[in-house]
Specification:
Elements: H1 3-16, H2 22-35, H3 39-45, H4 51-62, H5 77-80, H6 85-91, E1 93-98, E2 103-107, H7 113-123, E3 127-131, H8 134-152, H9 176-191, E4 194-201, E5 205-212, E6 215-223, H10 227-237, E7 249-257, E8 260-270, E9 276-284, H11 299-309, E10 314-319, H12 326-337, E11 344-348, E12 359-362, H13 371-378, E13 385-388, H14 394-405, E14 409-414, H15 419-428, H16 433-439, E15 440-452, E16 458-460, H17 464-469, H18 474-482, E17 509-511, E18 523-534, H19 539-544, H20 549-559, H21 564-573, H22 579-585
């Protein structure tokens, strides 16, 4: 059966089981013919269908067992690895056990009879097949081989290292264990959703920490005797000078880990302990390709933001500290308006993710290619939309303003605590207030908060103190009910619902629990909380008067702006995060005079 015929047959099964509509299937099949990608991979990557529902449909159609979760730790290594890892990943099939008469395998596509026949030939036994979701099978394959790598790369010195008389358990002249150990760091980091890897020299050992959902956790330790080869290995992968140990260095690694393309930004700095400290930022290329509706905006804020980015000109600023998701938000905005009819140019430091249809420039200040010079060049490239990684100084700000005033939409970032402070920050750069007023159309401030694991979150009744801290006390709710919303904060055909409007007399909050799904942390992933300041006829005159940020914020709230704490309260009421997360990420809201 040809690949196209196979895709059509799978499509018929999925339509029959209600996974996808027949009308939506036709364009997907056309894409399969053009790209050569499998139908199920395309459906999952484009969020057309859920991988679990696809697997359930296959199991029902073929009369096989569906496995919702594979017990990865129970899979015997010697059985699973009789099938080469490249073959297992290509066909998404994995032998998980055997007895005297049968071998048992789990797969994502039971219609791939070639793979089942090959397993039968390797083991010389009939194959009993069960079905699991694509990612479940892939994770199981990676976990099995990861355990092998970890077993081969246990970098431990002698237990009597208190006497500094370290004895090698492995042959230190052989680089293979070091390579396997470093590779296993990357594989484990991807599996545990780490955003950063820290390799740090301590007095007697090497400590590896992962940053997961904004928190650092100790992941692994090794004897200090291996610090030098570990550093050398990472430097070689990042194309850094392994002989230079006195100066900081920056590099980049591109890897394919567990089927995912990952860019890794590497930074080294010398320390007083005689070794360099390494921090690596993992950038998952697929994780940033989010739609604007995937970022967690409230319905009204989504509507306003979508309207702003469709404007032909003006400046939209995204503010927040480092690591608050500003780049992800900017890329989501660009993805939303990325069409062949628009010429989109970006200047970034560095280019973190490459997006088709958008022309990106990596600035190099050391050779004179700065944000300022890139912007000047962009204005000669007939752009429609310009994204500037960050407005850092007056010349860059002035060129961005000039671009917006001459008919271009400009998106950029600033480092400020809230949306109102972005206005005063531009004025501090000696940008004329009337230019700020006439060019900036919207300012989005954001933070990231950890999301509760939905499998183990624990409900409870909030205290009056918690309700007041989130602005959900009776006095604050009564004020929100009386507030008159400005037309600039209204969305067509949408009724605004203020935070806490449908809270009820006995609201339920949630706190973190702990289970296998979240590795007993109680949280899985992070989501943004936002405040969107629209420059309207009430805020504009304040900018011209050089009003302080507090005054601007007070007027914006009176006009209808929801603060980051308001948005956090909304997510607390929906059971998405905790009170502690929101209070830690936001400032206490100001009281608006009536």
């Amino acid at each position: 059966m040809s690949a196209v015929a196979h895709a059509e047959y799978i499509g018929e099964i999925l339509v029959r089981h209600g996974v996808i509509d027949a009308a939506r299937l036709i364009p997907l099949l056309d894409t399969v013919r053009e790209r050569g990608q499998t139908l199920t991979e395309l459906m999952i990557s484009t969020n057309v269908a859920d991988a679990t529902k696809i697997a359930q449909a296959f199991a029902s159609e073929m009369g096989m067992d569906f496995v919702p979760k594979i017990d990865k730790d129970a899979i015997p290594f010697d059985i699973a690895t009789r099938l080469p890892i490249t073959y297992a990943k290509q066909h998404l099939i994995l032998p998980i056990s055997e007895d005297d008469t049968h071998v048992y395998a789990v797969c994502a596509d039971p219609l791939d009879t070639t793979a089942v026949d090959d397993v039968r030939s390797i083991f010389g036994k009939p194959v009993e097949v069960s079905v699991a979701a694509n990612q479940q099978v892939l994770d199981a394959i990676n976990r099995v081989w990861e355990k092998r790598d970890a077993g081969q790369s246990n970098l431990q010195g002698d237990k009597h290292d208190e006497e500094d008389n370290l004895v090698d358990i492995i042959d230190s002249d052989d680089d293979a264990p070091i390579i396997a150990w470093v590779n296993s760091l990357f594989a484990l980091a991807v599996r545990e959703r780490a955003s950063d890897i820290h390799i740090e020299p301590e007095e007697r050992d090497v400590v590896v920490r992962y940053r997961i959902d904004g928190e650092l956790y100790v992941a692994r330790r090794a004897s200090k005797q291996f610090m030098a080869p570990i550093i050398a290995r990472v430097k070689i992968m990042a194309s850094l000078d392994i002989a230079e140990k006195r100066l900081p260095q920056d590099g980049r690694i591109t890897l394919k880990i567990a089927g995912k393309s990952v860019d890794i930004r590497v930074s080294t700095v010398p320390t007083s302990r005689g070794f360099e400290r390494i921090v690596m930022r993992l950038l998952h290329k697929t994780s940033v390709l989010l739609g604007l509706d995937d970022l967690g905006f409230a319905p009204r804020e989504y509507g306003i933001m979508d309207h702003l980015i469709q404007r032909p000109d003006g400046i939209i600023l995204v503010t927040g500290p480092t690591g608050s998701g500003k780049t992800t938000t900017l890329y989501a905005c660009l993805n939303r308006i990325n069409e062949p009819s628009r010429n989109i140019l970006t200047a970034e430091d560095p280019v973190e993710y490459e997006i088709g249809g958008i022309h990106q420039v990596h600035v190099h200040p050391s050779i004179g290619l700065t944000f300022e010079s890139a912007l000047r060049a962009f204005l000669r490239q007939d752009p429609d939309v310009i994204m500037v990684g960050e407005i850092r100084d007056r010349p860059t700000a002035e060129i961005a303003i000039h671009a917006s005033l001459t008919g271009h939409l400009v998106l950029s970032t600033l480092h400020t605590n809230d949306a109102a402070s972005a206005v005063t920050r531009l004025v501090e750069m000696e940008v004329e207030p009337f230019l700020v007023r006439s060019s900036v159309i919207g300012i989005l401030a954001q933070r990231l908060v950890r999301m509760l694991c939905q499998q183990c979150k624990v409900p409870y009744q909030p205290t009056q103190y918690e309700l007041k801290q989130l602005g959900l006390d009776e006095e604050r709710l009564a004020w929100k009910q009386r507030r008159t919303i400005s037309p600039r904060y209204a969305v067509h055909n949408q009724v605004y619902e203020y935070v806490g409007q449908k809270m009820g007399d006995e609201p339920v909050f949630y706190k973190a629990g702990g289970c296998d799904a979240c590795m007993n942390k109680g949280f899985i992933g992070r989501r943004g909380i936002y405040e969107l300041l629209v420059i309207d006829d009430a805020v504009g005159p304040l900018i011209l008067k050089n009003a302080d940020a507090l005054t601007v914020k007070r007027v914006a709230i009176a006009q209808g702006m929801d603060t980051m704490r308001d948005d956090g309260a909304r997510k607390v009421l929906r059971g998405m995060t905790t009170v502690e997360e929101v209070l830690a990420a936001t400032q206490e809201d100001i009281i608006v005079d009536e």
